[in-house]
């Protein structure tokens, strides 16, 4: 049902006049393609947010969900490391206040409460090239991705050997294999994640751009913590 579910999400975005997919929708799409995502819930009240945080388990992260707020951090719409019900309540109110100050007309659909993941931060993305079609990208992620520029590219669809070579050819590969006393990450799960994402892009060749960052990978597997999809 991955293709059918994704089609419905993309049609909904287009019907609403959006050129991009909201973060909860991105994760719904990824999960339907077998890509692990962080546990989360979109909440529309403080009490609901506190309940979600308690069920997910502290610490948690809170993020604004709004069609008008693409860059959530720039609008003060993200709070990380929330460790108690009192902090959750304060974060909820602060996010709404910040977003309304940044854009009084922004439609707020709720606050996403999600788990905090650990591991090495990677990025998985794509661009729709006029000549070659979908080109997939993998590399070291996080806030310094544009500084490191440590990435590898392959045409979609990927074969298993493509996914393995993408992982192995980046300069940060030793970070994934246990350098400096780190625990080696689950490379088979990472490789399968790239193949699953490739399948999504192959199913929807008109996707203009995708950016999953950060994606956390550890010895326990892979989890997408944030992402965006730009429609063609």
Major β-sheet annotation: 7 strands, antiparallel
Number of helices: 8
Low-confidence stretches: none
| CATH fold-level name of the largest domain | D-amino Acid Aminotransferase, Chain A, domain 1
The overall strand count is 11
Residues in β-strands, percent: 25-35%
Backbone CA Rg: 18 Å
Class based on secondary structure composition and strand pairing: alpha+beta
What's the mean pLDDT score? 95
Output the CATH class name of the largest domain. Answer: Alpha Beta
Distance between the termini: 22 Å
Count of folded domains: 2
**Series of H and E elements:** HEHEHEEHEEEHEHHHEEE
CATH architecture of the largest domain: 2-Layer Sandwich
Helical proportion, percent range:
25-40%
Instruction: State the CATH superfamily name of the largest domain.
Output: ATP-grasp fold, B domain
- Shape descriptor reads globular
Task: Give the SSE layout.
Elements: H1 2-15, E1 20-21, H2 23-32, E2 40-43, H3 46-56, E3 60-65, E4 78-82, H4 85-102, E5 110-115, E6 120-129, E7 133-140, H5 145-148, E8 151-155, H6 160-169, H7 173-177, H8 187-203, E9 209-218, E10 221-224, E11 227-230
Antiparallel strand pairs: 1-11, 2-5, 3-4, 3-5, 6-7, 6-9, 7-8, 9-10, 9-11
Helix pairs in contact: 1-2, 3-4, 6-8
What is the gist of this entry?
It is built from eight helices and eleven strands. With 232 residues, the chain is an alpha+beta fold.
């Amino acid at each position: 049902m991955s293709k059918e579910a994704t089609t419905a999400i993309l049609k909904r975005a287009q019907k609403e006049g959006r050129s991009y997919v909201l973060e909860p929708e991105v994760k719904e799409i990824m999960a339907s393609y077998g890509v692990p995502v962080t546990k989360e819930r979109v909440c529309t009240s403080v009490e609901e947010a506190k309940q979600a945080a308690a069920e997910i388990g502290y610490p948690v992260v809170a993020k604004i969900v709004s069609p008008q707020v693409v860059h959530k951090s720039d609008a003060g719409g993200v709070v990380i490391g929330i460790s108690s019900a009192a902090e959750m309540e304060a974060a909820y109110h602060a996010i709404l206040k910040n977003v309304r100050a940044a854009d009084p007309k922004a439609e707020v659909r709720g606050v996403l409460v999600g788990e905090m993941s650990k591991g090495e931060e990677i990025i998985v993305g794509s661009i729709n090239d006029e000549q070659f079609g979908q080109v997939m990208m993998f590399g070291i992620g996080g806030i310094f991705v544009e500084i490191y520029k440590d990435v590898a590219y392959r045409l979609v669809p990927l074969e298993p050997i493509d996914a393995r070579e993408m992982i192995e050819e980046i300069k940060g590969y030793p970070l994934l294999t246990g350098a400096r006393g780190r625990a080696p990450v689950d490379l088979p799960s990472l490789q399968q994640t790239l193949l699953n994402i490739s399948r999504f892009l192959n199913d929807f060749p008109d996707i203009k751009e995708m950016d999953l960052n950060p994606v956390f990978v550890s010895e326990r597997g892979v989890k997408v913590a944030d992402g965006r999809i730009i429609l063609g």
